[in-house]
Structures are given as C-alpha cells and as structure tokens.
C-alpha cells in the first residue's frame, strides 16, 4: 500500500523475491524490518553482495540509480521525499549517494507504528504523515551526527550474525538471554547492549518480531489451525499469537489471514501492500 501526502509518500514492501532498478527523483529513506541478502549496485555498474539487517536505516540521494535483487527479500518500509522540501538539507559530498545507519532504535519504533497504521482497514493519513515526518527527522539527525569510528554493530557483526541465524533455527522453542549471549561469546550485559545497537531492538522484541514474521508467512500460505501456527512459531498459545498480531499489525489472526490471502504479493514492484 502506498500513502501519498504531497511532500512525501510511504510504502510497505513485502518479504518476497524481487529484482528492481530505479533512479528516483526523490530522496529515499528505507528501513529494514527483516534481514535480507542479495546483490545490489548503488550509483554504479559494479554489483556487490549485500546483507541488510533489521534496524538498518538507509538514506539515498535523488537521481542515484539503484539496482537491487534478492531471492527472498524482506519486509521493508520506504519513504520517498520530494527534493525541494524546505527542511531537507543534505550535503551530498559528505553523505555520498547512499548512507546506512545500523540498529536505529527510534527508527524501528517509528517503523513498527507506521506498519500498524498501513495495515488498518481505514488508514489515518494525518497520523501516517506525522509519523513519516518523525522518521524523516530521525534520518536527518543521523546524517548530522559526527563520525565516531566503528560501531558495536560493526565490531561484533560476526557474533551477532551467529545469533540471528541461531534464533531463526530455534524459533519454535524457548530461547533464553544466557543462551544467546553464549552463542555470541559475550558476557550477558555486554550482549544486551551490543545486540540492541546492532538491530535496534532488544533480544526479546527481536525474537517476537521473527516469530510474527514466520506466523504471517504461514497464515498467508495455509489454512492450518491458528493453534498449530502458534506452536510452530514458538508462541506460548493461540491467544499469545493473537495478542502479538493485534499489537504489531492492529488485526486479529483471522482478519490478517483473510486480507493476506485476498491480496497477492507482487514481487519486483516498488509500491504494493505488504502483508
């Protein structure tokens, strides 16, 4: 679904395979909800492998040609901002064609709130515009921060990559903080701080989001009982699944399933409902 409010538009892209090439006349702010891997080329012909993590906040300047391709994709929020917006002051030589900030907690919170509104049966454009402006402000504030050297995300990337893979492999069962810290090879308190800096949310919130994403896929693809889906995704019971979907998407599981199965995912497009 795309919401346009004059100075900008916001879109939610689904977790689906895609291959796109675009050179937007707008500044583009993108926020990843899921990890996705693929190949891209930013403002050049040379293609490189990429590994985008949840909580990555990317800022791309106007007229920069972007090619991106992924076999799996990942849920992604985009904000296209008209280049003549008065408050949009970007020093292109400083930020380059595209700048990525990792683990932005405020952006993640705003992104989750926008996603919930975009799933509403009757979206509220005024509130969506308000949150979009806040997300843009967060992105611009990151551009003005001084460079402080390698972040915890970069220094501990391999350790957190192991944790992300481990969580996905063990979603159906219980996961403890001590267990995850052991996978990372870190003391517990250091792991908690470092993980939040890497993905923009606490381990508990991240695990809940991954379970939600898996449940959404199962709801889209099957008519399996809700209790079975809850069990397969590591939720304590069907009511727990329902509470999380209601909190994160504003829908009941049955409402979500009906909507998801009625609207196909259109891979390779830049504007469609991500469900």
UniProtKB/TrEMBL annotation:
<keyword id="KW-0238">DNA-binding</keyword>
<keyword id="KW-0805">Transcription regulation</keyword>
<dbReference type="InterPro" id="IPR009057">
    <property type="entry name" value="Homeodomain-like_sf"/>
</dbReference>
<dbReference type="InterPro" id="IPR050204">
    <property type="entry name" value="AraC_XylS_family_regulators"/>
</dbReference>
<keyword id="KW-0804">Transcription</keyword>
<dbReference type="Pfam" id="PF12833">
    <property type="entry name" value="HTH_18"/>
</dbReference>
<dbReference type="InterPro" id="IPR018060">
    <property type="entry name" value="HTH_AraC"/>
</dbReference>
<dbReference type="InterPro" id="IPR018062">
    <property type="entry name" value="HTH_AraC-typ_CS"/>
</dbReference>
<feature type="domain" description="HTH araC/xylS-type">
    <location>
        <begin position="161"/>
        <end position="259"/>
    </location>
</feature>
<protein>
    <submittedName>
        <fullName>AraC-like DNA-binding protein</fullName>
    </submittedName>
</protein>
